[in-house]
Amino acid sequence: MSQVLSQRSTGGAALGFLRDYGAIFGMLAVLAIFYVMQPAFVSPNNVLNVLRQSAVLIAISLGMAVVMSMRGVDLSAAQIADAAGLIAAMLILHGQPVWMAFVLPVVFGVAIGAINGLLMAYVGVPAIIGTLGMMFIIRSGELIATNGAEPQILFSLPRGITAPFLFLGQGSLGPVSMLIILAVVLFVLVYGLMSLTSFSRRARAIGANVRAAYLAGIRIRWVFALGFVVSGALAAIGGVALASRTGLAMPRGAEPFLLDAFAAVFLGTLFSKQGGVSIPGTLIGALFIGFLGNGLTIVGLGAPYRYALNGGFILLAMMVGGLKKRT
Amino acid sequence: MAFDFDPPRPALECRNIRKEFPGVLALSDVSLQVRKGEIHALLGQNGAGKSTLVKVLTGVYRQEAGDILVDGEVVRMDRVADAEANGIVIVHQDQQLVAQFDVTRNVYLGIEETTAAGFLKLAEMRAETAKALAKVGASFTPDTLIRDLSVAQREQVAIAAALLRKPRILILDEPTASLSETEVALLFDVVRRLRDDGVTIVYISHYLDEVLDLVDRLTVLRDGKLIATRNVGETSRGEIIRMMVGREISQLYPKEEVPIGETALSIRDLSVGSAVRGVSLDIRRGEIFGLAGLMGAGRSELALALIGALKRTGGTVTLHGKPSNPSGPQAAMAAGFALIPEDRRHDGLIADLSMRDNLTLPNIAKWARFGLINLGAEKAEAQALQRDLSIQPPNTATLTQNLSGGNQQKVVIGRWLPGHSDIFLFDEPTTGVDVGSKVEIYRQMTALARRGAVVILISSDFEEIVGMCDRVAVMQKGRVNALLERNELDVATVLYHASGGEEAEPGAKPKAPRAVPTAPAESPPGTARLRDAAGFVSHWGALIGMLATLAVIAFLAPVFLSPGNLFDVLKQGSVLAFIALGLTLVLVAGGLDVSAGAISQLTSNVAAGLIVGAAGSAAAVAAGVALGAVVGLVNAAFVLVFAMPPFVATLGVMFVTMGVTLLYNGGQAITLAGEPGFFYLGQGYVGPVPAVFILLAVLTAILHLFLSRTRTGLRMYAVGQNLPAARLRGISQPRYATASFVIGGAILGFSGAILASYSYGASALATGIDYLISALAAAFLGSTLSRSGQLNVTGTVVAAIFLASLSNGLILIGISNQALPAVQGVVLIASIAIGVVRRREIGQILLF
Q1: Cβ(A237)–Cβ(A109) below 8 Å
Q2: What integer is the mean pLDDT of A45-55?
């Protein structure tokens, strides 16, 4: 992001400041309301708790951001996370080794991502349709595998069996929670992927002008398909982390993350100069959504407000983005 | 000028027209008279000002000074409609038609004849269309779909459409560019007959032979100035070319002699559909080889076919002695090809990215190890390229969209220099480029030639061709018309051949295969048969598949066909069909409503709530419809006022709607009991037939009539399927897009009320997405049932009932209904895949 310097002269320092930093002040202002209503909102415990909980959303959102930076979309991401958590839990319940519970779900995510990539990039199915269809195919698989949405409960098993698996979601390395470490590692990896690699250059070109990218000799189908694979893998990691954190996996339990991931990516566009997808912006967006959900719960407002506010923020972010483009 | 002596007043007159663009004087003091009932040609090289003049005449541009007179009266043309009101009608070069419409609907788009109630007078319009088609000598009927017509036939449709607008002055812009010789002759008959009927015709063409054959008088423009108007009998081709070329070569070309090496690239009988027809060329190392010709001559297509971006339909290419047939630009790049595309802003540059990103994009792997870029080395190379090509400003982080045209072009050239490219295809590299950058670009071409590369310069700027090239092939209508050596080159000669000169000089190497049959054999018969098969599958495949599926179900579970079960399926399917209908209405006009399911859920809650509050069935239904329409309006506002892509806008609205629903019902299901009147809507029967199905049938019939028989419906389709065409016909997109969102919303609201009645209340879960996928699956599966593959309400309803049958059947067979979502998902993907699989795009969507 820092490499892209705006060449246009800003009309007034104040306006430029507002444009560059308005989003972050807006977010802080929203969160400040929760603080005023319920000061415990900013207690170190609560903040750490939210950071821990946000790891799942961060993983899914980062994958979504990679796909969306190429003008794709992955509506199956939350469902992949869902199924991945389920696979992990079922493997543990069936007495399989722990490494399998970590590796196989990610393999599953990569495989679904590859099928998505095949459909969108090589067959040419519009991403909205293809990934929506995939979402429902996975959902069916989950329902059949769990005999109609029976929760796969791990926390009732003997601690000795589950401890290594639950360590990811509940343990900590020294004072730092494993989930926070996971989130940081994923962010660094994805940020690196989207700024330091040849993939990032090609992906950006495809997002900006696919015809020109094609004529410049880029394998547009291959690169576009890879985006879905990355998204599938990240969503699967998020799903495993969720199962590990909560100690259970329930079919369709991760579905609400789809909305949150969209909101995170769209809010993240506020942090890019040209109003496009930004990886650091997505991280900030995901954290904001995490704190927002927590704040709503603390002040006693439930899912309806979360839906409405997330939807509203998506619209708001796009309206601001539209204004930015005009100026 | 004493034109008052002339008794017949000119049909069209321009007096001292002046039009300026920033930095360019496009028309200066142009005065021109076109007599009533004559065919008047407008001639000039590219950039002479012809198209600007036409745009002024048709109300696209407004002149800075001067008057336009029609029949002696000064007229103002501020909008396209003003021109038509004055009897000026234009047939554009690339006539935009709605491919999925039939001929009648296309030619009448924008001037539909309707009854007082707003219904299309199809019979009358069809009869008029048939007459107009007869006039232009067309051999197809008014019911033919445009997509089944050839390019030449579409041209006939475009002219028929112009005739129906009762032109007094008809402007034809390059009408013959894509026609074969027989088709041209046919067109000329039509044009002459029109003249004899008293229509005044302004004819723009690059092909001088045709012009001399057809027109009565001609006017030559050069550099935005009027050179002369002549009677065709008083001039000659030589004189016209002299007037078009005019000046001495004004610019100095940095041409250097470079030793020319062996033949590197051999092209034999290369064909691309009807655009390139059997071109043979041998091009040598160190040579700057010109491909001269006018727009539409097939030069760009030739270049694209060389790099595999266009499919070849015949011929071979040999590169350095080996056959070359790259599968696409990527393979071509590996083989050494480098294309500098004609449309710099759209095909060449990635305008949103920086100079550095653009410069190193094709060869980025060169600086990467295991995918990780050595950013230092990569940046240094970008800076070196910037210095070598003296790209301004020097900061390589500058976004390329902020560069001048010349510097943008240098970026597009520069990005091929770090690689091992040795065949450079420059397609119109200097259009819109300042003089300084031009010289820089020429120097680069020379430097590449000196390096032993093959340099092909495609240009319609013949001065540049003459100034820079060692040899030149002049193309016209897909063929090489002449091959000129350096000592034979001058602008007039090139123009002579480009505008339809005689056979290539004896001794010229390429034997332009003039013997190619004039009927454009667009593809070999094998592919035609394949296409027929594909056409059959996409026509009937879906329906056959659906019937076969139902047959299997009936075989495995005979009870499926029992009347009781069938009516049950109809009842279940009808509820889904209502939602799918609402969504279809939005999709028709090019929108997308992700909030469709959420709207239905909200209104089902509100309707159920009203019933609980004893407001009565009528109020519940009315509130549902009204609320749905309001949400539709909100969707339309975000899409149109804030210019958001429909997906994003309706996604946001979907979540807000879901939140509002949960606020309304407080997270509790609303259960209804003892409301027989309200329940009758969704659960009642008329005889054995479910009442809800009868409602559905009525609504479908109304919507079908609305979409296929009214002006509003026709225009909604037009806006959704070919927006540029709709705009050219003066149709306002916001209006019809809003209509589709609001009508669709109202239907979704209505379906919510039905849903509440059908399920004895409203559910508390936010199941908006579940309804959405069923509705999308029904709409797109339904679209595969229509003749033209377009979305249509009957197809949607049939598909919705099919999906319900499928779910019913799966349960009857004993397959758990847990598989149902997967079935819907597969149906959705498959029905879309049928439509897209032959296109070559990737599944990107509009996000920002």
Answers
A1: yes
A2: 94
Mutate to test the interface with B, among A136, A206, A267 (most CBs of B within 10 A): A136
B232 and B270 Cβ atoms separated by less than 8 Å:
no
Asked if the C-beta of B835 comes within 8 angstroms of chain A's C-beta atoms, the answer is: no
Judging contacts by C-beta atoms under 8 Å, the chain B residues touching residue A218 are 329-330, 361-362
> In the structure encoding, which two tokens stand for residue B483, read together?
């091959």
pTM of the model: 0.86
Helix (H) or strand (E) holding B21: strand B12-21
B256 to chain A, minimum CA–CA distance in Å?
Answer: 29
Residue A13 lies in a domain: no
Collect all residues of chain B within an 8 Å Cβ-Cβ radius of residue A201: 357, 360-361, 364, 373
Could you give the CA distance from residue B138 to residue B468 in angstroms, rounded to a whole number? Answer: 45
With a CB-CB cutoff of 8 Å, which residues 336-395 of chain B face chain A?
339, 341, 346-354, 356-357, 360-362, 364-365, 368, 371-373, 375, 395
The number of helices, as runs of H, and strands, as runs of E, in chain A is 13, 4
Tell how far CA B746 is from the center of its chain.
Answer: 31
Give the minimum alpha-carbon distance from A186 to chain B in angstroms, rounded to a whole number: 17
Size of interface A-B (CB pairs under 8 A): 269
Q: In terms of DSSP H, where are the helices of B469-557?
A: 491-498, 525-536, 542-556
Q: What is the CATH number of the domain that holds A186?
A: 1.10.3470
Please give the structure tokens belonging to residue A187: 């962010």
Q: Could you give the angle at the alpha carbon of B317 between the alpha carbons of B178 and B206, nearest 5°?
A: 25
Mutation site, A140, A262, A273, interface B, largest B CB count within 10 A = A140
Identify whether A7 is part of a domain.
Answer: no
B330 → closest Cβ in A7, A121, A219: A219
Burial B397-409 (b: 16+ CB within 10 A, else e): bbbbbebbebbbb
Distance from CA of A98 to the nearest CA of B (A): 29
Q: Measured between alpha carbons, how far is A34 from A29 in angstroms, rounded to an integer?
A: 9
Choose among B372, B398, B653: nearest Cβ to A197.
B372
Coil, strand or helix: which one is B281?
strand
| CB count in 10 Å sphere of residue A240 | 30
For helices B711-721 and B733-758, give the axis angle rounded to 10 degrees.
100
On the 0-12 / 13-18 / 19+ scale of CB atoms within 10 A, A281 is buried
Q: Could you read off the pLDDT of B255-277 as tens digits, one per residue?
A: 888 889 999 999 999 999 888 99
* B186 vs B716, higher pLDDT: B716
Does B352 contact A124 at a Cβ distance shorter than 8 Å?
Answer: no
Cα gap B159→B198, rounded to integer Å: 16
Residue numbers of the domain that contains A212? 23-326
Q: How far apart are CA B311 and CA B295, in angstroms?
A: 20
Residue B148's contacts (CB-CB under 8 Å, 6 or more residues apart) are none
Q: Calculate the alpha carbon distances from B239 to A56, B34, B38, B293, B735 in Å.
A: 77, 21, 21, 20, 52
Put simply, the answer to whether A140 touches B638 (Cβ < 8 Å) is no
Instruction: Give A171→chain B minimum CA distance, Å.
Output: 33
Q: Which residue has the higher pLDDT, B45 or B445?
A: B445
Q: What is the pLDDT of residues B787-822, one digit of tens each?
A: 777 889 999 999 999 999 988 998 888 877 788 888
Q: How far is CA B645 from CA A62, A319, A322, B639, B791, in A?
A: 22, 11, 11, 6, 20
How far B330 CA lies from chain A's nearest CA (Å)? 4
- For residue A102, being part of any structural domain is answered with yes
Report how many domains make up chain A.
Answer: 1
User: CA dihedral defined by B172, B177, B182, B183, rounded to 10 degrees?
Assistant: -50
Mean pLDDT of chain A: 89
Q: Is pLDDT above 80 for B22? A: no
Task: Establish if A140 belongs to a structural domain.
Answer: yes
